[in-house]
């Protein structure tokens, strides 16, 4: 039968056959997929794998520190953190089209990996040899929805599928390419990754960059980051993390509406809550969260994040809506 153990053994053999005695680097995004892909490759080639966490400035609050701490503690993997927010913010300046954002982010990821490879990994390697392989946590649904599957339309260019430059210097290793999320989680558990990593809700590689509708700026990221942290904190406090697949929080940065606070008029931005339930992210339904929880999130966000004066709930299933707004 096609058990988790089989998947692991088969993939480890395929990875060894592909990489030989070469070296690989794996980008960690803070999400489940890259964490599991890295753990598989580490199992296959040991410390010839180095993980690179590209801090693109599009992460959620405390996320970089969490990966630095939890993942390294759990796996003992070699990790290099590349501080690259300037690179990403410049590439995103003036860009508001969703596909253009995704492609720009995908391209800068590769540039950031190349820079880390050349200036850090190769520079520090005893043999001075380059890293030839790049591990990505691409899943089957990513391939299908990026137009990689047979007869499939390109719905979105997932950053790690549709945005790769022509002159890529790495050969890709994608051990999860045939798997769905629940299988990936099972593989991660079997490999001994802790629940706070495997059970984590999905978060897209392009990060908060595709949760700001409009141009991405540092100021807007800061607003979204604060609102998102409140929404996640309250969901966790209500004990509902396992009941939702994920809950994107989306900033409608180019929209303003009139509000009132105290005796004053406000003219602020709306925030969208997008809680969904799903099996594999190919289809989804909006989650019926308790109204007291929604009220709590709304009150806290409008009280604590000055720039936000309205919180709205997305009640669209997928299809026709996708989970992320971009
Ligand atoms: P959509 O918005 O297409 O999202 O319904 C389906 C699932 O994929 C996640 N997602 C991404 N994950 N890179 C990723 O690693 C991406 O570019 C990307 N875009 C969307 C999304 O959060 C949801 O879980």
From TrEMBL:
Protein name according to UniProt: GMP synthase [glutamine-hydrolyzing]
Function field: Catalyzes the synthesis of GMP from XMP.
Coiled-coil regions listed: none
Keywords associated with the record: ATP-binding, Glutamine amidotransferase, GMP biosynthesis, Ligase, Nucleotide-binding, Purine biosynthesis
Superkingdom field: Bacteria
Entire-sequence positions represented here: 207 to 532 of 532
Associated pathway: Purine metabolism; GMP biosynthesis; GMP from XMP (L-Gln route): step 1/1
E.C. numbers: 6.3.5.2
Subunit structure: Homodimer.
Keyword Ligase: yes
Species per Swiss-Prot/TrEMBL record: Kocuria atrinae
Domain spans labelled GMPS ATP-PPase: 2-200
Binding site for ATP: 29-35
Reaction catalyzed: XMP + L-glutamine + ATP + H2O = GMP + L-glutamate + AMP + diphosphate + 2 H(+)
